[in-house]
């Protein structure tokens, strides 16, 4: 799983504070965890906020849901919807968090908190990214959602954090391509491997995997009997990463297997 950034945590904390009403005396009301009896909106919202503040995120989410259920036409209901989504996120119930945030956007598409709802959906996918040996469907969903935040709300703190995470997600996807390419290469499937490494260069060229991908393209091109193609990739590697270990390996490989082809 990719790490949570300090900026994201700060934004979440800020969002929690910004959306919480001052509940007055209602904030001191104690309620039983599962007793969803009819209560005035101030008391119910304050109880939900208190649960969240005390680290009881699941119970907080349930109480925020009760605010909307019991007081659907109150201004608190709209805030409770988003706070429910946030509480489910804190509780690591990413499916319910996404559903709650999507429902908020369906009902209040033009609300001032819509950027945060889009951002929260992206975070839910982001938190579920697994290692590169697993299916990358969720990774691609995270990339799409983060890109949507960056596209819709440029110049915001949400967009800035989304951009950082987009870079990390792209690096992750490139890592997956490299892992598959190496497998094909070990199996002697040179063309299939070459195509995977080429995809890293074409789609993820700004990631940390680019130098190795270029080296692997040198290897597979030589294995396919294409020394001129190998030389082109070695040259690109030398121009862009002249002191890199992968270039040194590529140069040595060219000298050994295609000494009459310039690799610099």
Briefly, what is this?
By secondary structure, the chain is mainly α.
**Tally the helices: what do you get?**
12
Q: Shape, please? A: elongated
Q: SSE string, helix = H, strand = E?
A: HHHHHHHHHHHH
Largest sheet: none
What is the CATH T-level topology of the domain at 1-128?
Serine Threonine Protein Phosphatase 5, Tetratricopeptide repeat
State the CATH architecture of the domain at 1-128. Alpha Horseshoe
Class by alpha and beta content: mainly alpha
Beta-strand segment tally = 0
Give unreliable regions as ranges. 4-11, 13-35
Distance between the termini: 39 Å
Mean pLDDT: 85
CATH class of the domain at 1-128: Mainly Alpha
CATH level-4 homologous superfamily of the domain at 1-128: Tetratricopeptide repeat domain
Give helix % range. Answer: over 70%
Q: What fraction strand? A: under 5%
Explain what you see.
The protein has a domain at 1-128: Serine Threonine Protein Phosphatase 5, Tetratricopeptide repeat, CATH 1.25.40.10. The chain has helices at residues 6-19, 41-53, 57-70, 75-90, 94-107, 114-126, 137-152, 157-186, 190-203, 210-223, 227-240, 245-257. With 264 residues, the protein is an all-alpha fold. It is elongated, with a radius of gyration of 25 Å. Helix 3 packs antiparallel against helix 4 (75-90).
